[in-house]
Amino acid sequence: MHSNTAFLKEMGITEWTSRDTKADMTSEAPEIAKAITAPPASAIAIDRSPAALWWFFGNPPQGDTELLFQGIVRALGLSPQEWLWKNPSDAVEVEALMQTGIPMVALAFGGSVAQKLSGERDALPQLRETVLAFMEEGAQELPLIATFELNHLVSRPKDKALFWQDVLLAKSVLQNT
Questions:
Q1: Mean per-residue pLDDT, 84-90
Q2: Average confidence (pLDDT) over 100-126
Q3: What's the domain range around 44?
Q4: Is 112 exposed, middle or buried (0-12, 13-18, 19+ CB in 10 A)?
Q5: Which domain of life is it from (predicted)?
Q6: What is the CATH number of the domain that holds 66?
Q7: Mean pLDDT lowest for which of 39-48, 115-124, 152-161?
Q8: pLDDT, mean of residues 89-96
């Protein structure tokens, strides 16, 4: 089972696959394997710049929350160059990154984190499903999405579907930048 499929299944989301695609892949696999000879690993150079950059703000995940976060990163298909974990107390030095032209989005795990970063006073239910702006000078252009703390998602798995809505909002913000 593909790792993204397992995570999506855990989130309560069914991944659809085409029966025709599976049949075509299995019948063509031996022919493709014969036709292609892979270059040695040393000859492959991967130097891709990230298509987008995700910043995750909150308390560093540990234990079950770390496993959940790793699953989130896998489900999003993010490489290590495409995401960064930051503490809410860290300075947001976004101006230099925004000049690169790489689309960016930030996800705040928890109401208090979202309030601290955005300067908003509303509780998490009112902050969710809204694109917020950073309070810090020079970072107002970076979209901020408030969502549940990872601990909350571990203790209340039913809210994972709501969390996934927040992630989809962040993805749509990235696609529109």
A1: 87
A2: 92
A3: 1-177
A4: middle
A5: Bacteria
A6: 3.40.50.10220
A7: 39-48
A8: 71
